[in-house]
Amino acid sequence: MAHLSISSAEFQKGFGRYREAALREPVTITNHGRDSLVLMGVEEYRRLKRCERRVMGLDDFSETDIAAIAASEAPAEASAFDDERL
């Protein structure tokens, strides 16, 4: 996905244009030359929220849960995700 980067001053001057651009691609808004905000369409935001993961600690699992996880095996097709990184 393409990525547009603009200063906060430019964003203020051209809000309408960048609002429309954000529906097609993320728009990074910089402040003093540093990335500050990212403007994106609501559909992209919702997609990212669906990808959010809840992190659980070991204390969140019962002994039965831990035994079931230890005994489980990932299906062969899951190996397609071995190289994914966050």
What's the helix and strand layout?
Elements: E1 4-7, H1 8-13, H2 15-22, E2 27-31, E3 34-39, H3 42-51, H4 63-71
Parallel strand pairs: 1-2
Antiparallel strand pairs: 2-3
Relevant terms:
86 residues; alpha+beta; three-stranded mixed beta sheet; 4 helices
Concise summary:
It holds the Pfam family PhdYeFM_antitox. The protein is of the alpha+beta class and 86 residues long. The protein is built from 4 helices and 3 strands, in the order E-H-H-E-E-H-H.
Describe the protein in words.
With 86 residues, this protein is of the alpha+beta class. The protein has one domain: 3-Layer(aba) Sandwich (YefM-like fold), CATH 3.40.1620.10. The protein is 38% helix and 17% strand. It is built from 4 helices and 3 strands; from the N terminus they run βααββαα. The chain has helices at 8-13, 15-22, 42-51, 63-71, and strands at residues 4-7, 27-31, 34-39. A 3-stranded mixed β-sheet has the order 1-2-3. The mean pLDDT is 90.
Q: Remind me, CATH topology?
A: YefM-like fold
Number of strands: 3
CATH architecture: 3-Layer(aba) Sandwich
Strand adjacency order, main sheet: 1-2-3
Q: Spans of 5+ residues with little confidence (pLDDT < 50)? A: none
Mean pLDDT: 90
Strand content: 15-25%
Distance N terminus to C terminus? 17 Å
Helix/strand class: alpha+beta
**What is the CATH class?**
Alpha Beta
Shape: elongated
The named CATH superfamily: YefM-like domain
Number of H/I helices: 4
- Total count of domains: 1
What's the helix-strand series? EHHEEHH
Task: Give the helix proportion (percent range).
Answer: 25-40%
Largest sheet: 3 strands, mixed
Estimated radius of gyration: 20 Å
Function: Antitoxin component of a type II toxin-antitoxin (TA) system.
Pfam family, one: PhdYeFM_antitox
Organism: Acidomonas methanolica NBRC 104435
Family: Belongs to the phD/YefM antitoxin family.
